[in-house]
Amino acid sequence: MTLWHKLRPYSMVAPAIIIFSLFFIYPIFYMLYLSLFDWNFVSPTKTFVGIQNFVDLLTEPEFRQVLSNTTIYTVLTVALTTGLSLLLALWLNRGNVFYGIVQGAIFSPHIISLVSISLLWTWLMDPEYGLLNWVIGLFGFGKLQWLSHPSTSLISLVIVAVWKGIGYNTLVFIAGLQSIPADIYEAASLDRSRPWTTFTKLILPMLSPTIFFLVIINMIGSFQVFETIAIMTQGGPVNSTNTLVYYIYQYGFRFFKIGYASAAGVILLVIVGILTIVYFKLLSNRVHYR
Fold first, then answer.
1. Which of 121, 167, 226, 287 could cross-link with 106 by S-S, CB 3.0 to 4.6 Å?
2. Which of the listed CATH numbers 3.40.50.720, 1.10.3720.10, 2.60.40.10, 2.30.40.10 matches domain 54-286?
């Protein structure tokens, strides 16, 4: 075997490895490097501060609130999106034309720009002229300050995220349901299995790879939320909707504290990495592949 034949496989994957290293690996290491410095993004010199940026972050009450907001947002978004999508998939898993139209309608928000969706929901949640307050007013309820009150602002963003993501998750669940062999349902019917028993003992285990996949991508996506916050609330009111990525953006590109923002980025990277590893370790053995 010639040298060219030995190097040929590596030459095939080299472009992808170079692009991945340039746009993914290098930025991570450069972020780690910047987190050790005090730099304003303009000055040509950087001041080495070691781990002081991390100490300042972890002792800052505002950052702890941002972590709390991010955790609440992620838990609610992942749980509601996954749960509601599964219920919709069970309902829509039929060959009828009507259900096909409903599937398309539910999926349509997924292909719409998140900026457009944020602007739309900003109008819908307007306390004076919004459609949502008009609808609940028909039932005798008072007007809600959807985005302008700390008690409802974060929940409002969760509603937008669930509305945006539920269509994609539903179609993935439908694909998972349709991949389950029909003879499994026939065997359950012959055994006179109750619907709840069929669902918990047969359908859920067979859907475990799908659930595993969707929870992972929904969790990572929720930690990276930015557009809806930047357009709808800008982290307010009183920091009640500020999350990690928007916090990094604020300190990096508004306050020009690059080292501080990089340290927050490192913490975000560590949190997502740890959660992903723990999730894989705890639940991967519960995933049933056929």
1. 167
2. 1.10.3720.10
